[in-house]
Design goal:
Layout lengths: L2 H21 L19 H22 L5 E2 L1 H11 L8 H23 L3 H5 L2 E4 L7 E3 L1 H31 L1
Parallel strand pairs: 1-2
Antiparallel strand pairs: 2-3
Helix pairs in contact: 1-4, 1-6, 2-3, 2-4, 2-6
């Protein structure tokens, strides 16, 4: 198995773990927002979608013009607007809709990434992200690694927030 194939498999696996974790949250808990957190339990899906959308757009830009530097700062501003809603309460139907969006955004990335050759996988493009004036050499492999790690970061986060909700619900 190539590094590309392994990375793609890890991306799929990490998504399943996140979706399984957030799907197991009771509907009543989706609105829970810990006083020390930026994201409500349901808002974690909104946040993950904002990041998937961001890196999907970065990937489209990187693949669209391989010879130029990509200015991702406008993409990052859009991500910040999307992400601002991550603390809001969510309902069961809202979770279903957000998970549908997550599937679409994830599948877009997986499809695009699945079409790349190994050489394209590792090719670095200079990308200027928000908060920096200097370009960061970014490859498709980098993007999928960041997204995989992002999913995996929020699996235990779901459990922590759920435990917080359970503690307040029984108090």
């Amino acid at each position: 198995m190539s590094a590309r194939e392994s990375d793609l498999a890890g991306f799929q696996s990490s998504r399943r773990k996140f979706v399984d974790a957030i799907s197991g949250v009771p509907e009543d808990a989706l609105a829970y927002l810990s006083p020390s957190d930026d994201y409500s339990l349901g808002g974690l899906i909104t946040h993950v979608n904002a990041i998937l959308r961001r890196y999907g757009r970065v990937l489209d830009g990187v693949l669209g013009d391989t010879a130029s530097e990509l200015d991702a700062r406008p993409i990052d501003l859009d991500k910040d607007v999307d992400n601002a809603r991550s603390g809001e309460a969510m309902t069961g139907p809202g979770r279903a809709a957000a998970l549908t969006t997550l599937a679409q955004l994830h599948d877009h990335m997986a499809f695009k990434l699945g079409t790349l050759t190994d050489a394209d996988w590792d090719r670095k493009t200079p990308v200027v992200f928000g908060g920096s004036e200097e370009p960061y050499p970014t490859s498709a492999g980098d993007l999928i690694g960041w997204l995989t790690g992002h999913y995996e970061e929020h699996v235990p986060h779901v459990a922590e927030l759920l435990a917080g909700w359970q503690a307040t619900a029984t108090a």
